[in-house]
Write a structure and sequence with these properties.
The protein is α/β, with parallel strands linked by helices. The protein is built from 6 helices and 28 strands. It has 4 domains: 165 residues, MoaB/Mog-like domain (Molybdenum Cofactor Biosythetic Enzyme, Chain A, 3-Layer(aba) Sandwich), CATH 3.40.980; 43 residues, no CATH class; 88 residues, Molybdopterin biosynthesis moeA protein, domain 3 (Beta Complex), CATH 2.170.190.11; 73 residues, Beta Barrel (Beta-clip), CATH 2.40.340. The strands form 8 sheets. It has a 6-stranded mixed β-sheet, with no helix packed on it. It is elongated, with a radius of gyration of 31 Å. The protein binds ligand LQZAQKY5 and molybdate ion. Its EC number is 2.10.1.1.
């Protein structure tokens, strides 16, 4: 029985197990999904930080800006030095950006607003000095204990910077699953095969899946396999990958052909089927099950556009779910021109997304020839999901947009 894309997502999600956590050195944590909270171990900034190179002063010494003022410079405080102390009024300390504010001072005058005569610093008439100027006060960004990054965050340079500054040398992150990608079919030959017969095609789906998964950064080791349409060979390889890998992706061999052995082979190896058929094009014969070890198994319809679409519509969201990643907010776009699809199926329509000139984003349909037209996806940005309930879609209508990785 065919189910809707939303019901398929629901069915898949119900059967997914969370992946375990592991510790990861900070320098390797970019792209990983955080499984802990990152909190401030001390105030940020941790001291009154000087923000301009110049002279730290007591603003009370310089209140009358109608006259020239003179201070004697008693020393230099660089970033990384302990705070010095201003001994008396009428003095100042030369300071660097990033240094701690010297004790007894409350403002910094940048070099550009001063003149120098030996140890004497001259502040010309008209230059105003206010308490707190050129300072980044202790804790003015965040207080100790503040939550800075929540579990579920994909770590980018911004979160890595924050983790580093609070001393998180190791981060608890989700384990990235190892993936077996199995291309099925006797017609397939490797890309570097010396000879391609007129009845043969080069394997492309497994390369496409691998590339998109690598680009997503959600997975660990990826290995590709080829299954010929030969049951003993299919069974042996499936048995091996089900024992060894955390996620199994098959492409091809799941529709109604005489040699479409995959569903039967999987069932006999103890993989429980939860879904076989979604009311959508491309990707209708999608098959999903879980092994006795709760390994998810997706058998993606072999047509290249179907495989690639199903990866983005179902497999990548499933991976994010298993990793505990906070789902990205759904993106919507407006259809730039009318589109008609008369079948009682949802249509995953490849589009190019461009600025519509009015502050929005317009999706220009780039329909493929058949779902075997793998070149048809070149130059597209993703696809919009057109619901099965309608057949005519008007320019300006809003739809969910699924972006390619
Ligand atoms: N009687 C029916 N026939 C078909 C139906 C149906 O409902 N009833 N569904 C059609 C739909 S929709 C699709 S999609 C395909 C899916 O079929 P399979 O998953 O069994 O895939 P194959 O038949 O093995 O391959 C389809 C097509 O894709 C090419 N292919 C397969 N693997 C690769 C690869 N790794 N790299 C490049 N190209 C690949 C393969 O050569 C075929 O041309 O079934 C319809 N039939
Ligand atoms: O739905 Mo199949 O996935 O058309 O090519």
């Amino acid at each position: 029985m065919l189910v809707t894309p939303a019901a398929a997502t629901e069915l898949i999600t119900t059967h997914l197990a969370a992946l375990p956590s592991e510790d990861c050195p900070l320098a390797a944590a970019h792209g990983r999904v955080l499984r802990q909270t990152i909190t401030a171990d001390r105030p940020l900034p941790p001291f009154d930080r000087i923000t301009m190179d110049g002279f730290a002063v007591r603003s009370a010494d310089l209140t009358d800006s109608s006259v020239e003022r003179r201070l004697r410079c008693t020393g230099f405080q660089a970033a990384g030095m302990m705070a010095q102390t201003l001994a008396a009024s009428g003095l100042c300390i030369e300071v660097a950006t990033g240094a701690v504010l010297p004790n007894g001072t409350d403002a910094v005058i940048p070099y550009e607003e001063t003149e120098r005569d030996g140890e004497t610093i001259i502040i010309p008439a008209g230059a105003v000095c206010e308490s707190g100027q050129s300072l980044h006060r202790t804790g003015s960004d965040v207080a100790t204990g503040t939550t800075l990054v929540a579990p579920g965050t994909r770590l980018s340079g911004r979160e890595i910077a924050v983790a580093a500054t609070v001393g998180a040398a190791q981060l608890r992150v989700a384990v990235r699953p190892s993936v077996a990608i199995l291309a099925t079919g006797d017609e397939l030959v490797e890309v570097d095969a010396p000879h391609v017969g007129p009845h043969q095609i080069r394997r492309s789906n497994d390369y496409a899946l691998r590339a998109a998964l690598l680009q997503s950064g959600l997975t660990g080791r990826i290995e590709r396999f080829h299954l010929r349409d030969h049951r003993p060979e299919i069974d042996a390889t499936l048995r091996r990958v089900l024992a060894e890998f955390d996620l199994v992706l098959l492409t091809g061999g799941v529709s109604k052909g005489k040699l479409d052995h995959i569903p039967k082979a999987l069932a006999e190896l103890g993989v429980t089927n939860h879904l076989h058929g979604v009311a959508q094009r491309p990707g209708k014969p999608l098959w999903f099950g879980t092994s006795s070890r709760r390994t998810p198994v997706f058998a993606l319809p072999g047509n290249p556009v179907s495989t690639y679409t199903c990866l983005h519509r179902y497999v990548l969201p499933a991976l994010r779910h298993q990793l505990g990643a906070t789902p990205p907010p759904p993106e919507t776009v407006r259809l730039a021109e009318p589109f008609r699809f008369a079948k009682p199926l949802a249509f995953m329509l490849p589009v190019q997304v461009r600025d519509d000139g009015a502050g929005g984003r317009a999706a220009h349909p780039a329909p493929f020839n058949t779902s075997g037209d793998l070149g048809g996806l070149l130059g597209t940005d993703g696809f919009v999901e057109l619901p099965a309930e309608a057949t005519d879609f008007a320019a300006g209508d809003t739809f969910t947009f699924w972006r390619w990785t």
